[in-house]
Amino acid sequence: MDKGKAVMGSGRRWAVEFTDNSTSHSSRDIPDPPGFTRASQEQDDSALSKQKKDAEANWKAQKAWEVAQAPFKNLFMMAFMMWMAGSTVHLFSIVFEPYKDNKVDLLAPKLVFIALNLVGLGLGIWKLNTLGLLPTHVSDWVSSLPPPQEVEYSGGGIPLH
C-alpha cells in the first residue's frame, strides 16, 4: 500500500468547512436578550484585568491571614489533646507560598503564624516538663550523680520513708 492513500476504495477525504453559506439570518440579526448589552461585553480589558488582579490580591491577603490565625484556632484543641493523650508531637507544615504576590504583604501574617506556633511550642514544653521528661537536673546529664529527691508522693497522705 502506498503511504498517504486512503484505505477505503473510494479515496474520499473528510473535510470541515467553517464558512456559512446558508441563507438563514446571522447572529447579528437576532435581537439581544433582555438585560444584555453589547457595551458591557466591550469593556476595557485593562480595567477588567486590573480589577481581577486587585480581587486576587485581596483574596490572597485574606487567605494568608486565615493561615496565620489557624494555630490560634487549634490552640485549645491542642491543649485538650495533650491533656488527654499524654506527650504527643504535633507537626505543622503550612507554607505561605501560594499567597505570595507583589501586591500582598505577607510579613504580618507570617509573624502572627510564628507567634502562635511559639505559644503552641511553649505549651508543649510545659507539658513535657510536667511529665518530667525534660532534663532539668544535673543527674539527667551525668549518670554517676544521684537523682534529685522527690518532692511529691502519692500514697494517701502517708509519707514514704
From TrEMBL:
InterPro entries xrefs: TMEM85/Emc4
Subcellular location: Endoplasmic reticulum membrane
PANTHER family linked to this entry: ER MEMBRANE PROTEIN COMPLEX SUBUNIT 4
Keywords: Endoplasmic reticulum, Membrane, Transmembrane, Transmembrane helix
Family: Belongs to the EMC4 family.
GO cellular component, one term: endoplasmic reticulum membrane
Entry's transmembrane regions: 75-95, 107-126
Protein name: ER membrane protein complex subunit 4
Highest rank taxon of the organism: Eukaryota
Pfam families, alphabetized: EMC4
Membrane topology note: Multi-pass membrane protein
Start and end residues of each stretch annotated as Disordered: 1-52
